[in-house]
Design goal:
Layout: H1 12-28, H2 38-53, H3 60-85
Helix pairs in contact: 1-2, 1-3, 2-3
């Protein structure tokens, strides 16, 4: 299965915003129960940001870009955290 086509379904600005918001949520709220909701929050935020930025050309692709970008930021954060801490 070739997943290289997914690279066209993200927006780097939305990924960056969601990454920053996720980092703030993870570190500003000491309650560990919020951690399981961070992907849901970032997926929703990515969706909202994508719809706002493409409101006149709304399509299913816009929805996919938003959701994928929000969830991508979650995976990106976890990858960087593991690389910095040296975890496997």
């Amino acid at each position: 299965m070739d997943i290289s086509n997914l690279t066209s379904y993200y927006n780097i600005v939305i990924v960056g915003i969601c990454l920053c918001v996720g980092y703030i949520l993870k570190n500003a709220i000491p309650n560990k129960k919020i951690n399981r909701f961070i992907p849901l929050i970032l997926g929703g935020l990515g969706l909202v940001l994508s719809i706002i930025s493409n409101f006149k050309n709304l399509s299913l692709e816009v929805v996919l870009v938003g959701l994928f970008s929000g969830l991508l930021s979650t995976g990106l954060y976890e990858t960087f955290k593991n690389l910095i801490k040296g975890e496997k």
